[in-house]
């Protein structure tokens, strides 16, 4: 039975999520604020977290950072009424695995949660992906290039894994969208461009040669120069 921590100060949303998640067979703990969430998290053992951004006694983004520092692998889905691109990007950059703006369809949220738990199960099996001088430890959710750590989390980590799973293959933007956000996501191709640019910057720190190349009109390919 998967364990889920729900952090939301709205009693109606909290009650709805508790009922729905328990009906689906999850073991659920609810917190109405940052302090209660920290206490619950400290007791440990959660397989996923649903986290509201706006809390009465703290900032959801700071709570996200604290959770991610303590557990790099636990899936975290952000819940918020702020559905603007800036807030989404900030949450994802800080390590959120998905972003669900309110009001949301319960069936979609549950589907997104199941998708994240499936990914967690795959990553938990461990293993190492390598291409050129880039290496990703799936179990530890750590990446490096030439032995130097690459600070990638959340969607950026998933994007790097996707490239490493398909080296020297052209990945269409639509395929990347479906992999990272699901086939029914309303996220546009601009999000892919943003994350590819950020991942390139991290991979190319210190003057390292480019590995992620643009294929005009199609998408991107992970390839060493000259190949």
From TrEMBL:
GO terms for cellular component: cytosol; protein-DNA complex. GO terms for molecular function: phosphorelay response regulator activity; transcription cis-regulatory region binding. The modification 4-aspartylphosphate is found at residue 52. It holds the Pfam family Response_reg. SMART domains: REC (SM00448), Trans_reg_C (SM00862). One of its GO terms (biological process) is regulation of DNA-templated transcription. Keywords: DNA-binding, Phosphoprotein, Transcription, Transcription regulation, Two-component regulatory system. Residues 126-224 bind DNA. Residues 3-117 form the Response regulatory domain. Signal peptide: none annotated. Residues 126-224 form the OmpR/PhoB-type domain. InterPro entries: CheY-like_superfamily, OmpR/PhoB-type_DNA-bd, Sig_transdc_resp-reg_receiver, WalR-like, WH-like_DNA-bd_sf. This is Response regulator transcription factor.
């Amino acid at each position: 039975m998967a364990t889920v921590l729900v952090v939301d100060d709205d009693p109606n949303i909290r009650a709805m999520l508790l009922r729905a998640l328990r009906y689906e067979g999850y073991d659920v703990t609810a917190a109405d604020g940052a302090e209660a969430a920290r206490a619950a998290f400290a007791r440990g053992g959660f397989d996923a977290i649903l986290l509201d951004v706006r809390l009465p006694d703290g900032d959801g983004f700071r709570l996200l950072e604290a959770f991610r520092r303590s557990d790099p692998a636990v899936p975290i889905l952000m819940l918020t009424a702020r559905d603007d691109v800036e807030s989404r990007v900030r949450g994802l950059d800080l390590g959120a695995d998905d972003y669900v703006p309110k009001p949301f369809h319960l069936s979609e949220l549950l589907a997104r949660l199941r998708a994240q738990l499936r990914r967690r199960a795959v990553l938990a099996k461990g293993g190492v992906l390598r291409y050129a001088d880039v290496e990703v430890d799936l179990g530890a959710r750590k990446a490096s290039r030439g032995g130097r750590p690459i600070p990638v989390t959340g969607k950026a980590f998933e994007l790097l894994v996707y490239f490493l799973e398909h080296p020297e293959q052209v990945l269409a933007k639509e395929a990347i969208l479906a992999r990272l956000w699901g086939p029914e996501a309303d996220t546009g191709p601009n999000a892919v461009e943003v994350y590819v640019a950020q991942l390139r910057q991290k991979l190319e720190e210190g003057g390292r040669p480019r590995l992620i190349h643009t294929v005009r009109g199609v998408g991107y390919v992970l390839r060493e120069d000259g190949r």
